[in-house]
Design goal:
Strand order of the largest sheet: 1-2
Structural class: mainly alpha
Radius of gyration: 21 Å
Largest sheet: 2 strands, antiparallel
Order of helices and strands: HHHHHHHHHHHHEEH
Mean pLDDT: 88
Low-confidence stretches: none
Strand content: under 5%
Distance between the termini: 23 Å
Helix content: over 70%
Amino acid sequence: MFKNTIKLVTSNFANIWKLLIYKFLVLGVVFGLFCATLGYLNQLETFAALKSSLVSFINVFNVASVPADIMANAHGLLESLVAFLSNLAEVFPFIFVYILALLLFVLPYLWHLGDLAVSEEVFGYMSSQTKYGLTSSFIRNLNRENAYSLTVTLILLPANAIFLGGVIGLVELSGFGGAWGVFAAAFVVIWTIVYLSLRTTLLSSWAGAITTTNAKTWRGLKKALRAISRNFLMIWTTAIVFAFAFVMFSILTGVIGCAIILPLFCFIISVFGLVVFFEHRGMRYYVDFDTIIQPKKLEQTDKLSKLKYLI
């Protein structure tokens, strides 16, 4: 799975630039909507303190080699953020709700809105080396993308809350100082890799299932989970490798590197999900112009009890 995913990513590398443009457009739209609140936010002293803490954290994250220093600044940033949000909710409650809606609903909804278009492009290449335009695929699938993106956003809301709760707990732990900072930093990395890998394992084939079988949103999720259940440990192991590479690259290159590699990671996950689904159904697929992969069909590799997954 890993090798075939990488080959497909390399063969479709031009799509990464399209995805990069789309993701930056999404970030630009959300940032523009956020900037509409600056007139109110600048009236709060806690906002100035938050900006100072954020700049300090970014600078340390980009250049620091000591994990304890990064966690110490993260702890200071968390304290500033809590103070700012408390102040904002008290002084400007409507602005507080507006910003939460931007971060929790608008951003993830727009972020995932193009997933089916990307999946359709890769599906065309894998199945018959047909090329679809990303823009035309986006427009053609807009109704399905809307339902899919809304559902993904709602599903990820509690999952992201659990992840952020774990990160916040570890950052608070680093506040004890000393070795606790190193311990917390290591577990933040591990926790992030586990979360990203599980999220990739459970949800990466969803868009591919919808595209491949022309299924509706929930039906596509059911098909994707069936594909995952066939070989969960191998899929999760491969997802851990991708998540580990993403986290390590982000740590080594800092915030700018993270922003650049994030669209690449999203594209890799889309391709990986399609590879998992194709192999689950025993469908042949191209990985490059000359190479066709023919996975064994389910009845050739699995027990009789698992044949129901073909239905």
